[in-house]
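name: query_chain
kind: protein
chains: 1
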Amino acid sequence: MADRSEMYNEMNDRSREVFRRVVENYLESGDPVGSRTLTRTLSEKVSAATVRNVMQDLEFMGLLNSPHVSAGRIPTQQGLRMFVDGLLEVGDLDKDDREKIDATLGSNERDVGTMLDRIGSALSGLTHGASLVLAPKHEAPIKHIEFIHLAQDRALVVLVFADGHVENRVFTPPKGQTPSSLREAANFLNSLAEGRTLAELRFKVGHEIKVRRQEIDSLARDMVENGMALWENEGQHSERLIVRGRANLLDEEADTEGLDRIKNLFDDLERKRDIAEFLELTEEGEGVRIFIGSENKLFSLSGSSLVVSPYMNADRKIVGAVGVIGPTRLNYGRIVPIVDYTAQLVGKLISDRS
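structure:
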């Protein structure tokens, strides 16, 4: 933002160094940074009183904050944003980190979901945050659809794709379904499905239901419409948003307020809320993006940061995303290259399999 760059340009060398040192110390320790600590690390020899005056000016500018009376300072969300945009030094991916990510591919797993789950677990382990991996939708044409009655309130849909991929999803059908209405719904869908992807079938089904509404039994129609909604929203038994390492977030927060925010995040993740919005966060171009605190509109947890990068298929189309979510006190300089490398790796793997 222009305001931040203007603010940074107005700061003198001493103010910039004090600001940078406060943020770096905070990101490393998580503790407020005091003037006496800074006097030992600054490039020029100045008194603690001089440093305190500089910190007060930075607080007046909205870049630092005092969490307690007479304590040190921590960066505000605005301060972290300025640091990330203008002062963050992102190095090359650490050799050990690269080897640990590459090691997830050792088994040459053919199933994309299993592969992405393993990559997500490695990502959360490396970053000590929660990893988010948005898997691509399966775009192969459909070969066959079948509904299987399990209980009064449970049914199974089996999707067989032309490339041999099979998905099974348990869901709650509309009330009043019978085995015959399940068969009628499957027959109707199979008459339209061959050669079409799920997205294409959704469009075709909507059109056909309008045209042939009188011909389709009402129970079967409810079943079709309910089933298509299930495929659109992705049931829990076929995750698109793979979340691993949530326990890492609990380790970072000890106070009641922090635990409440973490609980809200868990609730959002359990509901797979706004999966499409997670992908939209990345669609303004390639590369890693960082969302700090309330900038992260995806989740109700405002005291978090999201580092996210899209990945592309062989046609250079964005089909998914990889990210890490954690407290605002993330080691951005290390996590950014990890997320970037992981996203590029996933893109290559998806392209190789397509």
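note: The chain has three domains: 2-87, 95-137+240-353, 142-233.
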